[in-house]
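G., before I forget:
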Amino acid sequence: MLARRIIPCLDVKNGRNVRGVRFSADKDAGDPIALARRYDAEGADELVFYDITASAEKRDIVGKLVRRVSEEVFIPFTVGGGVRTYQDIRTIIEGGAEKASINSAAVHTPEIITQGAESFGSQAIVGSIDAIRRSDLDQIEDVRWEVVINGGRTYTGRDALEWAEELVDRGAGELVLNSIDADGTKDGYDIELNRMVAERVDVPIVASGGAGGPEDMYAVLSKGKASAALAASIFHYNQYSIAEVKTYLAERGVPVRPKIEIDLT
Amino acid sequence: MIAIVNYGMGNLRSVQKAFEHVGAKAFIVDRPEDIDAAERVVLPGVGAFGDAMNNLKTAGLIAPIVRAISEGRPFLGICLGLQLMFAESEEMGQYRGLDILPGKVKRFPEGQRVPQIGWNEVRIQRDTSLLDGVPDGSYFYFVHSFFVVSERDEDVVGVTDYGIDYASIAGNDRAFGVQFHPEKSQDAGLKILKNFAEKV
């Protein structure tokens, strides 16, 4: 049976980790490769590198990071954060990442999803949606979640559910749903948002934003119908290990990939 | 040496790096003579079956691949590479494959999320050197919308459940194919690549 995935997200700037204190005593604390290797050893099913480099050399920096990761970590990984052009996607995929995650650029230029999927296959193109919940008072027609971009600063007036459908129609092979309301709260994922989108599209859904502990992951992977749960802080700050999360899930009947010792010598 | 066949179907760098990680030298090649010179041949690939066969044909790579297998040189198809080993595919029209194994390639039935993306379990059906030290029930990383249906039970080496049971490892003698990505399947996948480089 297909396992539900647990995905740590690493925030990277100029090729260095910018979040997390768990290895502060370690000289490699800022090295994303060192952190990636530890998550891999702990049983992470996949990794997401969220690149927030804002310089003109961004693409070179990302390309270098991707190549380094693919030489040392043998699990799938996705790169997101400011992926704007076909050339950006190409740098990421040809460097050895499985997937490029596209957010704001898809809203501005939806063709980038189509073009990316045609060139690299749907499995390589992740549609990333930042969604914010509309209260009843300020609802525009029937929009319950609105798509926001530029890190939540710009409202687009788009319905997140319809946008999810369009991204999939254009060729996105997976969607990341990041709840802006839940992000950083540790109060749990937006279960309803995940479930609504999962029931509407056929591609796997990765839940993001709000993870405070294993119970939140359990909720979004069961009731929320997500295929994967992404988290940053709870892993970076050592609140929970990936193994603890997986044990919790397995005890409640969620299929997860168990850790198996294999002699590689 | 191990030749990784480049025929324009996806990124091969990860496969090469994974072989290097387990101490095997692997080269990305795209000429028929490089395949003829190789001790072991790996055919990776993601994308459409029809495009893949066209690319192989245009580059003159079909004959050297079939030759390598018939001469008993170890062969490993990965993902689309496994599917190409079969006789035919019904992916967007009918296409002929390399016809190394009898059977065909079909699309997952309605009712499952397609593509299957993620880690799934392989139940080992028989012993082979390719799987030495790989525990039954190990998980591997899959990304695919089509699966192979083998005509011969003895060609089915591993089975995976995605709504239906299908062959996730197939082959015989020294020619095998895996539906998953061993280069992205952590230690279980690396072990298979190491076995392929050293034992098959």
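The first helix of chain A runs from residue 32 to 42. Chain A has a mean pLDDT of 91.

More on Monday.
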